[in-house]
Amino acid sequence: MQRRFYRRVFVSRLSDAVSRCHFFANKKSNTGWTEFAQTKVVPEYVAIDKTGKQVTAIVKYEGKVYLTVIVDLARNTVKAEGSLKKIKKVIQPFTKQRYIDIIEEEARFLVSDSEA
Length: 116
Prior knowledge:
Number of helices: 3
């Protein structure tokens, strides 16, 4: 009789421990991390038209232009020509879209800086 009682207590405690583990395993964490990466390829701003609110930038590597981005803030448009596929290993973890976003953010800063 006493063995059965101890088995039930052990099984009960074991199931409680397992349920607690599942509770903590399924709990979402509010913490995260930020990845800092050195940019080996930096955009160059070749034309900045402050009156027309237009900025042209290029992304080049070893003298060759791979991407040209034209940001027209007056019309709120971004035009990108080119590809970064050939230098994908060099620009990792960045993507083409990330470079476009960087250029667009800098263009907004450059044009707003001239207005102030």
